[in-house]
Each structure stands twice: as structure tokens, then as C-alpha cells.
Amino acid sequence: MSVLLDVLRRHFPEFLSGFFVTFRVVAISLAIAISVGTLVGALRVAPLRALRWIGTTYVEAFRNVPLLVLIFISFLGLRRAGIGIGPWVAGTASLGLYTAAYVAEAIRSGVFAVGKGQIDASLSLGLTYRRTMTKIILPQAARTVIPPLGNLLIAMIKNSAIIGASILALPDLLKQARILQARTFQTNETFFWAAAGYLVLTLSATFVVRRLERRLAIRR
Amino acid sequence: MGYLIDPANWEWLVTGNNLRFLVDGFLVNVEIALIAIVLSLILGLLLALARISKSALLRAPAGAWIDVWRNLPLIFVILYLSLGLPAPWKDAYEGIVPGFFPEALQSGRVLAGILGLTLYNSAVIAEIMRAGIQSLERGQGEAAASLGLPYWKSMRLVILPQGLRRMVPATVSQLITLNKDTTLVSIIAIQEVMRHGRIVSSFGFFGGAQAPVLQVFLTIGAMFVIVNLLLSRLSRRLEVRERKRTGVAVERVTGLEDQVAAAADVT
Q1: Is domain B2-246 classified as CATH 3.30.40.10?
Q2: pLDDT at residue B32 above 70?
Q3: Is the Cβ of A112 closer than 8 Å to some Cβ of chain B?
Q4: What CATH number has the domain spanning A2-216?
Q5: A88: which of A75, B69, B152, B264 is 20 to 30 A away, CA to CA?
Q6: How confident is the model at residue B267 (pLDDT cuts 50, 70, 90)?
Q7: What residues does each domain of chain B span?
Q8: Which residues of chain B neighbour A203 with C-beta distances below 8 Å?
Q9: What local confidence, expressed as pLDDT, does residue A87 receive?
């Protein structure tokens, strides 16, 4: 036991910096995923067929490709094509665009979950299209969209470890654990503390999402 | 754009054995996925049954086990196992692996990959199955009990067939995630499609045609898209068939898979 605590005490700065790198990767990718995902989600429910097709293609392509392949394409592939981007950009863009496909689906099904009668009713009450959207549809859609988005955030925290383990080698929590492991050969101890770091992130995200869900739930 | 569609950059695809080499690698991924799927489904069902058992002695540890493995990054688990698994385990694996398995699966390193995929996905699938079983009306279990069926029989004959049917879509989308996640074993140096892709693109392998990284990995991505689209098509077909057979749409239980697939696209 004392060995375990000793490892943490000695290498706390490394673990902490890894923790914050993971946190930053997730925060940036989340911003990309939400903004691109909303856009693609809007494309999927657009009135124009061509736009819908673009949205569907995006979702099917990015949802079915492994994240690691996206990382290779964006980092090595684009570099050979003459578009050199750094590991941070490649990593967060890959994770963000990958998750965006799922975000788009969540948003689409959230909008569809609001009954068509709601739109008809609000339009017949004389609300403009825009007010119908902002006052009637989106608040109700948010309620159904929050739980899947929460799940995606948790998946994203876990997927962020792929960025550190891949050729990008961002110094995230997993990478730090591997560096410490290679230096000290204390495999169990270093991975224990890295696991604790990941569990802090995923479990607290779970907790926040559950609270939000309960608050948004319709009370009957 | 010109670079992307320039035929000279795609020539490698039809020269020599490049494509076959990639497909060979991809088959290793499929095989790893199949092994992990079978193991995860079995272990997942056992965990789910333990998780809803009447005895708290079984329920609490199962719940803790599921929550830990479900909330750790899969690549973390794989890397830890590849470093931390005792050597005798790997030797034992090399001893029992059937001879007809491809060479890439003969190495003891694969054990860490398969074990990691199984630990992680069985925990996720256990949660999906638990939700499927618990979504059934209480009356079903009560009716089975009042007909005199013992616990295991009512589980096997009444609860599981109905509960598990509801979790087919969620399970399939988790299996698609699992299929994609098999690429992670390339990080512990198993020779599968990602490694084969690197080889093809760095040496221009057979035939001497230059194989640019971008095009090689776009091709690999396309392979995954095809297989995963087929998988989701299959799940949808199953659902439609079920609806035709029983006349009612099967209620779905979703939200516990890693990345939630669309809820509303059954047509």
C-alpha cells in the first residue's frame, strides 16, 4: 500500500499534467463535436434532398470508421498530401469530427421526437417559424438530446486516450503512465493512478449528466 | 483534391498484392472481433444475471466490476494488460490457440488484446442486457412464478427471450464499436490492418507502385464502413422481421451502448 502512495507522491506532477492534457483534449474536441454535429444534424433534417444526402454521407462515413484510421488520415495522410497539421490539431479534429457524427444523430432524433402536432399547433397560434423553433421545438428537443450527449461526452473521455497512445503521442494521462512505467517498471502502481484519473473524469461526467437528466425530466 | 483523385496515387491498389495484403490484415481484425464478440456476449450475460440477482453478495461485486471496466478507456485496459499480464498466461495462450488460426493470432500478445476487448465490451453489454431484462413488465416474472416455474426456468423461457430481443439494436451498435476498436491492438504490435497499411505505404510493397498514406488509410476506412454498414443493415432486417412475425414493433432499449446509434431510423 505504501508503495502505491509513494508512486503518487513522487510522480504527482506528471500525473497531474497528464490529467489536464486529457481534460483539454476532451474540451476542445467537445466544442468541435457539438458545433459540427449540430450543423450536420441540421443538414440531415434539411428540406433539400441534396443537403440531406451530404448529412447522411457524413454520418455514415465518420461513424463507421475507426478513430485510429481518422488519426492516420489526418496526421500522416494529409502531411504527405502537403497539408501538415500538428498532433494537437490532428488529434482534437479527429476525435471531434468522429463524435460529431453521433452528435448529429442524437440531435436529429431529438428534433423528430417532438411531435409534428407541436409545430402545427404553434404555427396555427401565429408564431413565426423562428419562434416556433426557439420557443417550442428546441426546448423540448433538448430534453431528449441531453442523455445521449452525456453518453457521448463519456465515450469521448475514453476515446481521448487513443490520441495519447497513437502516433500523435500527446502527453495525456495514459501517455504519462506509460512513460512512468517505462522508467520505473512499476506497472501496477502507475496504471492504478492513471485509472483513478480516468475514473474521476468519467464518473463525475456520469454524475453531472444524471443530475441534468433528472432536472430536465418531465414531472407528472 | 487533385492529389486525392489523381489516378497515379491509386495505382498501388491494382498493382501487385497490395490490396490482398490489406484484406489479409483486415481479416485478422475480423477474427479478433469475432472471438471478442462471442466471449463478450457470454460474459456479458453472466454479469447481467449476477447484477440483477436476488443475492446482494452477487449483485454488489458484479455492479462494481461492471462500473470499473465500463468507465476505463479500452486502449488503457489493453496497454495495461499487455504490460501487466504474467508471462505464463501468454505462454498458456500460445499453447491452446488452435493451429488453423492465422499467424498474427498465434502470438501471446494477442491475449492482451482479446482480454481487453472482452473485459470492456462484456461490461457494456452486461448493462445493455440488464436494461433489456428490467424493461419488462413485472407481471411477466410474476406470471411465470405463479405458473410454478422456478427462477432459472422463468428466466430462460419467459424473461430472457423477451428482454434480450429488446436489446438487439443496442448490442449491434456496440458490436460495431467493438469491430472498430480492434484496430487498437495495432498499438501493442499485432500485425493487423493498421500495421499492414503502414507497411504498404512505407515500402510501396509489391509491384513498386508508390502507395500514399492518405489513399491507403482511406481504403482501410472504406473496408470498415462496408462491414459496419452491413452489420447495421442486418440488425434492422432482424427488427423488421420480428415486427412482421409478431405484428407489433419490438420496444427498444437503448442509451447504454458506448455511442448511441440513432433511435428513430427504423423504416
Answers
A1: no
A2: yes
A3: yes
A4: 1.10.3720.10
A5: B69
A6: very low
A7: 2-246
A8: 67, 71
A9: 93
Which chain A residue's Cα is nearest to B214?
A: A77
Give the whole-angstrom CA distance, residue A76 versus residue B195. 14
What is the pLDDT at residue B208? 65
CA dihedral A11, A12, A13, A17 (to 10 degrees): 110
From A111-115, A158-162, B27-31, B53-57, the region with the lowest mean pLDDT: A111-115
Band of pLDDT at residue B255, cut at 50, 70 and 90: low
Residue of chain A whose alpha carbon sits nearest to that of B219: A69
Would you say B161 and B249 are in contact if contact means Cβ atoms under 8 Å apart?
Answer: no
Would you say B148 and B192 are in contact if contact means Cβ atoms under 8 Å apart?
Answer: no
Any B CB within 8 A of A175 CB: no
pLDDT at A111: 80
Alpha helix (H) residue ranges in chain B: 2-5, 18-51, 56-71, 74-84, 87-96, 109-134, 138-146, 151-154, 160-166, 168-181, 193-203, 213-246
Nearest to A65 among B79, B187, B225 (CB): B225
Residue A108 has a pLDDT of 86
What are the structural domain ranges in chain A? Answer: 2-216
- Tell if the CB–CB gap between B76 and A60 is shorter than 8 Å: no
The three cell numbers of residue A11 are: 510522480
SS3 A219: coil
Q: Do A198 and B186 touch (CB under 8 A)?
A: no
Residue B186 with chain A: CB contacts under 8 Å: 68
Cβ(B119)–Cβ(B106) under 8 Å? no
Confidence band of B207 (pLDDT split at 50, 70, 90): low
For residue A211, pLDDT over 50 is answered with: yes
Q: Taking CB atoms and an 8 Å cutoff, what residues of chain A touch B183?
A: 66, 68-69
d(CA B83, CA B81) in angstroms, rounded, equals: 5
Residue corresponding to grid cell 491509386:
B10
- A152 Cβ under 8 Å from any chain B Cβ: yes
